[in-house]
């Protein structure tokens, strides 16, 4: 599938990168270097977007602590940055929904410190490690080939 | 007395259909059989009065791995999923099992019935609610409807219906806002209790629709629990639907399911190594990530089907006091959380 544009960039390569604002992925630091695996690229897209949100939120907090209620024009610009980051996140969610990817942010004091990722591959890996987790692995019915060629179950 | 050990390791919905077959085996052939089960989703059998436990090496036990080959004739025969295991047992045992009840057979203990619902335990008092399932397992993604459409239905009924979102954390259940989020928090017996106390269920074709029909209703309510099923064109409606459910399907309306359910598995390949990524299992008409048949089902249509139960006085909406009580427990999107934390009516 075509990847979302945000999944093809890495904010960590920016000269103004603020590492403390970049969330972890499933409580682990996200791998560095060139990201080739499509699953990791998709995760990177979300981490990029949440990084933007964290930076915008931090800038707004700092502005409010130094200017109080003053500097309305600047405050408006900072809110627009938050809005832009939220739209990025929503766009990523919509783009990757069709393949069943869920990115759940863990938010502490307004900042997203960690993002948990969930998709078909991670579930398949979990199920392989612990086969009793899902009863849905049973698709083919033994002996069914003699009855029919489709291996059909309701899967309900 | 013939002794049967019945086996099956398919999904919970399949096991639920087997509970019906066991009930009706005893109903149609009283005193002729003793039954033991070795299945997945064993909690579905708790408090079941038709079960016996045999010695593992009992030579008098007939061991049967149960199938429902009838499914392969489901597009031609006017029969329900309920008939599937019954036909199999009739063929194997020479019996004449017929359904006595339109639904599976789930039993609750007296303690489970009188305990407050999982929702009441969280809110502090009993309030009416619907259960909502916004996704499903990764093996049959063709059953998924668009999460934003589920959200539109929830938003439509804001302050009138409390939706309680459920789903296994090992499956795809995109988060909704404005719901009581119990995803990953309802082991099977807890889910059964949740269904028992619920006013209704909104879901795709999945275990929950069968559970909605199988779990009894509390005293003082109408006999059958409302349920709206977003079905599209995968299954022939007569195979899945219950008469009192609103089963929204498109069979007959599209070339790919014009005369039959398509029985396909996935909308797009997921790359997880599952054989259901094979083109022979993929949707023939995907539209922007949704099967065309599911895209044809609008949130307005779903909202209307829910409303039927209220228009007909089978259900009542939340009172304003109940809506107020529920509001602090409802899930929020990150946008809503930030809007609240920043003290603004809306970021935009």
Describe the structure.
The complex is a heterodimer of chains A (156) and B (348). The longest helix of chain A has 30 residues, at 38-67. Residues 131-150 of chain A have low confidence and may be disordered. Chain A is built from 3 helices and 3 strands. Chain A has one domain (5-126). In chain A, strands 1-3-2 form a 3-stranded mixed beta sheet. With 156 residues, chain A is an alpha+beta fold. The two termini of chain A are 27 Å apart. In chain A, strand 2 (102-108) and strand 3 (111-118) form a beta hairpin. The radius of gyration of chain A is 21 Å and the shape is elongated. Chain A has helices spanning 38-67, 72-96, 120-129; strands at residues 24-25, 102-108, 111-118. In chain A, helix 1 runs antiparallel to helix 2. Chain B is α/β, with parallel strands linked by helices. Helix content of chain B is 30%, strand content 13%. In chain B, strands 6-5-4-7-8-9 form a 6-stranded parallel beta sheet, with helices on both faces. In chain B, strands 2-1-3 form a 3-stranded parallel beta sheet, covered by helices on one side. Chain B has a two-stranded antiparallel ribbon with strand order 10-11. In chain B, helix 5 packs parallel to helix 10 (299-311). The relative contact order of chain B is 0.13.
